[in-house]
Amino acid sequence: MKNIFNPLHSEEILNRIDKLSRNLKPQWGKMDVAQMLAHCSSFQDIAMGHSFPARGWLGIFIGNFVKPIFYNDKPLARNMSTIPTIMIVEEKEFETEKEKLKQKIITFQYNGPKKCTTHPHPFFGKLNSEQWGKGIYKHLDHHLKQFGV
Predict the structure, then answer these.
(1) What number of CA atoms fall less than 13 Å from residue 41's CA on the CB side?
(2) Number of domains forming the structure of the chain
(3) Which Pfam families does this chain map to (predicted)?
(4) Residues 86, 53: contact at Cβ < 8 Å?
(5) pTM of the predicted structure, to 2 decimals
(6) How far apart are CA 74 and CA 86, in angstroms?
(7) pLDDT of the residue at 82
(8) Which pLDDT score, from 0 to 100, does residue 56 have?
């Protein structure tokens, strides 16, 4: 499984982000490309320890049992539910969101596993830095595929 902490894997993701354009349509889901970038950026904030959404009852109940779906080799399901606080519905500016996400990925990769959050994921619960690194890559890959890149 690829890991965002690996410089080659983060470079691949950054190159794919550069291939996005504001007029791309999603192959699934409701977010447009700028909203998707903002969503991914908000998810980075959680992994970086800048945002701490509360754990919902469902995550507390089953999150620990299903958490391997976050970091295993299987692709994430299309139209999978998301953390309510990072569901982006308001209009966003494409170039701003694109650059913001790229900078967060660069910072996260540069800071490395030791600076990854120790706060529990809002659904899956406690994750180690390797699980976060794989999960971040997988999440970004999922959304880039959503827009065909």
Answers:
(1) 20
(2) 1
(3) DUF1569
(4) yes
(5) 0.95
(6) 23
(7) 85
(8) 87
Contacts with 118 (C-beta within 8 Å, 6 or more apart), sequence order: 49
**Rounded to an integer, what distance in angstroms lies between the CA atom of residue 7 and that of residue 30?**
31
Burial 17-42 (b: 16+ CB within 10 A, else e): beebeeebebeebebbbbbbbbbbbb
Q: Environment class of residue 97 by beta-carbon count within 10 Å: exposed (0-12), middle (13-18) or buried (19+)?
A: buried
Look at residue 145 and tell me if it is in a domain. Answer: yes
What would the pLDDT profile of 77-88 be if each residue is shown by its tens digit? 898 888 888 999
Write the pLDDT tens digit of every residue in 107-117.
999 999 999 99
Is residue 127, in this structure, part of any structural domain at all?
A: yes
Does 129 map to a domain? yes
Tokens 């959050």, residue located: 117
- What amino acid occupies position 70? F
